Amino acid sequence: MTKTRRTFPESLKREAVEQVLAGTPLRHVAQAFDITESLLGKWKRQFQDAGPDAFPGRGKQSGEAAELKRLRDELARVTMERDVLKKALAIFSQPTK
What we know:
The protein has two domains: 8-59, Arc Repressor Mutant, subunit A (Orthogonal Bundle), CATH 1.10.10; 61-97. The chain has 97 residues and is mainly alpha-helical. The chain is elongated. The mean pLDDT is 87. It is built from four helices and no strands. InterPro entries: Homeodomain-like_sf (IPR009057), RD_transcriptional_regulator (IPR051839), Transposase_8 (IPR002514). Pfam families: HTH_Tnp_1.
């Protein structure tokens, strides 16, 4: 029997973490949200480490990952432009017959 992986919305994660940070015992919050204590502890660490960028979800990227993607895309574009200019230079510098 296979289990399906549960997913949790960002709002639920933030609400659970806020309750823990407000002083509610981790065990009580985990029971109230029907999640394991270890998962809630992981969410708490993620929130403390990343702050507002915590819980990026599917398709969203953290600030550094988004910047890295932008730079890679720009590098690919500039490399393509350079290669096109090299080919054009090679074509136009051939002697005419």
